[in-house]
Amino acid sequence: MSSRRSSRSRQSGSSRISDDQISDLVSKLQHLIPELRRHRSDKVSASKVLQETCNYIRNLHREVDDLSDRLSELLASTDDNSAEAAIIRSLLNY
């Protein structure tokens, strides 16, 4: 038995996850990540799926930050009492 499996089998019963469950979760992740969707029929390693998932999440964070900055700039250039300012504040969760 590999050291990874033996360490997993030593975990408490409630937190144990099977290899099949891990494979299923990795497959679901593969279908969620745009970069990996085109590889549906190809076998992609779990490592590659996790790496691409992390990259995708980092990119999403960057996009959110960029959009927040743009909305903040837009808010600064609008009248505080305008309907547009209220919409922007709601988007920024102010």
Automatic annotation (TrEMBL):
Its main location: nucleus. InterPro entries: bHLH_dom, HLH_DNA-bd_sf, PRE. Residues 1-20 are annotated as: Disordered. Gene3D superfamilies: Helix-loop-helix DNA-binding domain (4.10.280.10). One of its GO terms (cellular component) is nucleus. Keywords: Growth regulation, Nucleus, Transcription, Transcription regulation. Residues 6-60 form the BHLH domain. It is found in: Nucleus. The keyword Transferase does not apply. SUPFAM superfamilies: HLH, helix-loop-helix DNA-binding domain. This is Transcription factor PRE6. It comes from Cardamine amara subsp. amara.
